[in-house]
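Morning run. Coffee first, then this:
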Amino acid sequence: MPSPCQITSGQTLGCRDNTGGIKNMWILSGSISSITDTSGVISAVTGTGQFFKFELFRETSDYNEITTVTPENGTIAIEQTLNAVFYKMSVSQRNQVRLLSGNQNIKIIVQTNNSTATDQFLLMGAYNGASLITSTAGTGTAMSDRNGYALVFTAKETEPASYFNANAGTAMQALFTGITFNSGSAFGPTP
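And here it is:
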């Protein structure tokens, strides 16, 4: 008997136009009430609040998804992980990290470095929310060591993160109703 979960296409090797890492992340201070998502592409989001931008220095932060299939239970779980690094310990950063650590339903937009024609944006914790799992603040030892924070966010979802049907700037913001974007970084400018 054939499975109802048949694949619909293959994968070619393609060109060498792939780039790793992430550029920016936005964390929502508010809530999402609905998402229009068709086959992994988000075309509209409704909610309240404001997304705050967190700038990330190149080659310091990453986003990963691990799919765990448990055949004996017939279940699939996707764990999303975001590792974010920020420079310069400060009182304002300490306070933001403290607030994030208490939030159990964080929504995060992740902007990847992989942009051939348009930027790629993913929504982490779309339905079940993400949480700040660990926060490491450190001064370093040598003068050239990092003074700052390393944050690890995780989310568990039943589907991989969906992509936004938009590119940077106003096209991205046009997908949102009731939610605004703050372009300033809560963790200061990128060095």
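The first strand starts at residue 22 and ends at 38. Good start to the day.
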